[in-house]
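Quiz preparation item.
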């Protein structure tokens, strides 16, 4: 009997401990870390980089840490066009060392501002590379930001929200009247064109959808009473808008992503507080979407005017939605991180012949604005790509909320498919996470052609979107 009693007590202790851990008070902390580069750094986003001569607004790594008593998760959004996988690997290693948050439980993504210095390194067609000085700086600052957020962990409540803001989104891939689609750099004609002439009579219809939904996860300090006012800790948002642009010449800017974060902060009752409220805006799935109305011109805007307008509007709608959320004090946390063995985009003999012919003509035929030599250089590097892609994908589970990731500039219809197929009703996809692998067209869009499908803009095999989606759904089902 004594033996049975001891076993019974041990089992009861285990059950009670498990229950207590499963229902432990959620804790959250948030912080920002400055990642602004030096003046003179090359700004990327266009085809030809140029030196930065001014900082209009600082770039940040915006960090959120969650702790359910058993598991910690970290979410980091960087004001960068994208980041090489090796940078993210190093940032996650440093973060695990300094905070104890497991590397697989850390999500790092870029916003895709086109007004930042490069964190992609010298070779985009390799999964592993030596880091540049700026990449090392960003990795260190990410780890510092997560450490600071971890230092601020405090009892919290979590809520999930969504609000539709369709008016700023326009699919940029268009069908046009026969014979009006311009020839591509390879001397061929695509079925669609990217960024057609605004207001053209030759426009027929967009080639894809947009995803109008801003999905967001809100964190506030745990209330002491039912009627007490709880200060906000952070709001992590994702909106499928490529970027807005319209910056001053040579200026560094976080684009509308940074403007949104500052606008949402101003709207909080604890906007000036210690610890400070932190907003994070990730890019959803916007590889084929931008802020240009191709049917109706909007007229010229002053620098930063349009991005400010978009940011203020989106922030106001998210802020209004905060009032009707359902808050929870408990949320079980978990994560899955995999690296997929996808194939790089194949470069056939015909394409290599085009590269050689183009390079031979560079000094005599092409002007500095021609895309031919640019793509010839890209394709030559792509042909020498490393054997493995190591394409990272991740699922984060926060209670009944699911976040999926893609390392590419991902089309909106892929993000919509993830929401439809994911076993979690509260789900959304974030792009440019843990690496940068170019555009991710679906097989249908490969058939249509266009800028996002060109070799040198697209890095991965035509079935990559299908394989990434299948992996994400399998991972989310495992966590469900």
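Solution:
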């Amino acid at each position: 009997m004594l033996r049975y009693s001891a076993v019974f007590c041990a089992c009861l202790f285990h059950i009670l401990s498990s229950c207590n851990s499963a229902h432990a008070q959620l804790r959250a902390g948030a912080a920002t870390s400055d990642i602004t580069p030096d003046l003179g750094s090359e700004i990327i986003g266009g085809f030809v980089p140029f030196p930065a001569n001014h900082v209009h607004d600082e770039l940040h790594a915006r960090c959120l840490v969650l702790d359910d008593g058993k598991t910690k998760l970290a979410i980091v959004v960087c004001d960068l066009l994208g980041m090489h996988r090796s940078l993210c690997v190093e940032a996650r290693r440093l973060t695990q060392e300094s905070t104890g948050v497991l590397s697989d439980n850390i999500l790092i993504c870029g916003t895709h501002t086109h007004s930042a210095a490069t964190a992609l390194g010298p070779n985009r067609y390799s999964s592993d590379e030596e880091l540049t000085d700026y990449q090392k700086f960003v990795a260190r600052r990410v780890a510092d930001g997560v450490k600071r957020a971890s230092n601020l962990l405090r009892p919290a409540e979590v809520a999930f929200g969504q609000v539709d803001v369709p008016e700023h989104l326009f699919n940029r891939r268009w069908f046009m009247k026969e014979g009006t689609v311009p020839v591509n750099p390879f001397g061929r004609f695509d079925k669609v064109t990217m960024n057609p002439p605004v207001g053209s009579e030759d426009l027929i219809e967009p080639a894809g959808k947009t995803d109008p939904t801003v999905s967001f996860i809100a964190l506030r300090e745990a209330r002491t009473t039912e009627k007490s006012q709880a200060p906000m800790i952070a709001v992590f948002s994702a909106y499928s808008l490529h970027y807005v642009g319209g910056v001053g010449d040579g200026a560094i800017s976080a684009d509308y992503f940074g403007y949104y974060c500052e606008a949402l902060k101003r709207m909080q009752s604890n906007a000036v507080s210690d610890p400070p409220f932190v907003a994070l805006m990730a890019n959803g799935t916007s590889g084929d979407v931008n802020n240009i109305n191709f049917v109706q011109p909007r007229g010229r805007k002053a620098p930063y005017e349009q991005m400010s307008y978009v940011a203020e509007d989106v922030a106001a709608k998210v802020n209004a939605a905060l009032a009707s959320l359902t808050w929870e004090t408990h949320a079980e946390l978990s994560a899955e991180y995999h690296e997929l063995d996808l194939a790089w985009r194949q470069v056939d003999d015909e394409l290599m012949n085009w590269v050689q012919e183009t390079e031979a003509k560079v000094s005599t035929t092409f002007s500095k604005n021609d895309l031919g030599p640019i793509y010839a250089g890209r394709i030559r590097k792509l042909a020498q790509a490393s054997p493995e892609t190591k394409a990272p994908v991740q699922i984060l589970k926060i209670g009944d909320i699911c976040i999926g990731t893609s390392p590419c500039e991902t089309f909106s219809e892929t993000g919509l498919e993830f929401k439809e197929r994911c076993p979690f009703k509260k789900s959304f996809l974030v792009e440019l996470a843990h690496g940068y692998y170019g555009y991710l067209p679906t097989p249908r869009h490969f058939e249509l052609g266009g800028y996002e499908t060109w070799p040198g803009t697209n890095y991965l095999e035509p079935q990559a979107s299908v394989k990434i989606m299948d992996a994400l759904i399998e991972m989310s089902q495992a966590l469900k």
